[in-house]
Every structure is written in C-alpha cells, then in structure tokens.
Design goal:
The two termini are about 40 Å apart. By secondary structure, the chain is an all-beta fold. The chain is built from no helices and 21 strands.
C-alpha cells in the first residue's frame, strides 16, 4: 500500500466495534511511519497513542494486537507499545474492550491481509488456591496486618476490625513470583455494613491499591491509599447494596489493566 492517488497507507485491527463511527483501532500507518492505536468517532479517525515505526509499502508485516480488559498492546517487527483506555459504560455497567465486535480495516487505504487469527488466550495458571477458614486458621494470610483479624471455623469467616479510622487489612502470601505481565485474579466473598474488598500491589500498610463495595454509600469503588493523602477514591459505580447479603467481589489484574466484577457483573 502506498499513499498515492488520493489513498492513504494504513491497515488496522478493529475492536470494541459498536457502529461505523464508534470503535477502536490499532495497526500500521505507512504514510506517517507509526504504530498506533486510536478510536473512531463521527469526526473521524483519532490517534490516541503511537510509537515511531519505519514502515515501507509492499512489505508484509506481522502485526499482533493484544487486548486485555482496557489495556491494548500493539506489536510489529519487534516493536511494541501499550495504551490504557477507560472502560466503556453499557447500561450503567463498565465493560472491557472485548465486548464489541472484532474485525480488520483501513482509513481510505488499499492493502492485503493474510493469515488472520483471533485468539482468546486463557491465562497460564501457576497458582490456584482457596482459603475457606473451615479449620479456624487463616493459613495464606501471613502478610502485613492492620487492625484485628479473627478466623472462625463455625461460620468459615475471617472477621476484620479496624483500629481507629484506619482500614483493617491483611496481606496474602501467594507463594509465587509475580512479573509485570502476570495475570492475577482474586475472588472474595464478604458481608459488611461499611466497606469491604481486596487490595493489590501493596508495598506497605499505608501504600496500596484496592477495589471494594461500599454499603454505607451504596457504591463499588476503585482507589488507593498512600502515606501522603490517605485513602483516595478514583472511580465509583453506584450499586444497590445490603448489609445482610454476602457479595462475591472479583479483581483481575494484567499489566496496568484492572477489571472488577461484583456478583459476576462487570
């Protein structure tokens, strides 16, 4: 493909497609020598991020687009970069970028596509374990502790009580080495009249990220705690919640992407 005769020179993988003027795209633009990712609106094709890429016409490139949650990684000929989108809200629910249709296309360009493959890759599990407290012990919870925690075998629960205004937290020993691209999924069942959830990337008792359901304020939250500002809520989703119901909260982590479900709803 060459940028001549009124044509541009690009080829894209299209994903999160909802309409001809509402989708995401990622691929190669020969005319600007870029690997790029962007989105389509009624105004046109908008580039969100890119990296320089010396591309030539009439050469076949192996292009790999990886989408995990809302994180997009663009790969071609040993060059790669990533971009993190915000979630798409559908019927009041946050969705990842795999909810819409997938395809291929270009912006006013001609080209050749071959050996197209779409894969939904399952994570390679190196650790799969459950703590149910049925023996009255919290065997996995050997990390940093704040507040008071008491496991009880009778109702198979681990009850946390905060000290003062600080949150009650308890660290888990995953027993495995985590890498930057590791996939981590934590699922917990909890009941509270206040706020309960899961923490991640904890480096200290006052420095961690978290997701939680907040019964007192009727919402699901994503945020972090740091030594300077304390608790910071970064995103909220309104939910009707009850203090008498056990909720199942799941947290999925991959690179810088976070996916949260409450009772299997994203």
């Amino acid at each position: 493909m060459k940028p001549i005769g009124g044509y541009k020179a690009n080829s894209y993988v299209i994903f999160d497609y909802w309409s001809p003027t509402d989708f995401k795209f990622a691929g190669i633009d020969v005319s600007t020598n870029k690997l790029l990712v962007g989105h389509r609106t009624a105004s046109g094709w908008i580039t969100d991020n890119f990296t320089p890429f010396q591309a030539k016409s009439d050469i076949t490139y192996n292009l790999l687009i990886q989408v995990n949650g809302t994180n997009v990684i663009v790969n071609a000929s040993n060059r790669s970069f990533s971009y993190l989108y915000g979630p798409r809200v559908v019927d009041g629910e946050n969705q990842g970028l795999n909810k819409g249709l997938l395809g291929f296309g270009s912006d006013q360009s001609r080209g050749t596509l071959d050996n197209i493959k779409i894969q939904a890759l399952p994570p390679q599990i190196t650790l799969d374990t459950t703590e149910d407290f049925n023996d009255g012990a919290a065997n996995l919870f050997t990390g940093t502790t704040t507040g008071t925690w008491v496991p009880t075998a009778a109702d198979q629960r681990y009850t946390g009580t905060p000290t003062g205004t600080a949150a009650a937290t308890k660290g888990i020993d995953l027993g495995a080495t985590l890498h930057a691209d590791s996939y981590v999924e934590l699922t917990t069942q909890a009941k509270t009249a206040q706020m309960a959830g899961s923490c991640s990337t904890s480096t200290a008792a006052n420095d961690y990220k978290f997701v939680a359901f907040d019964v007192a304020l009727q919402r699901v939250v994503v945020g972090h705690v740091d030594p300077t500002r304390g608790m910071v809520i970064e995103q909220t989703i309104a939910k009707v919640l009850s203090s008498t119901i056990d909720y199942t909260l799941s947290l999925s982590l991959k690179a810088t992407s976070v996916a949260v479900t409450l009772n299997a709803r994203t």
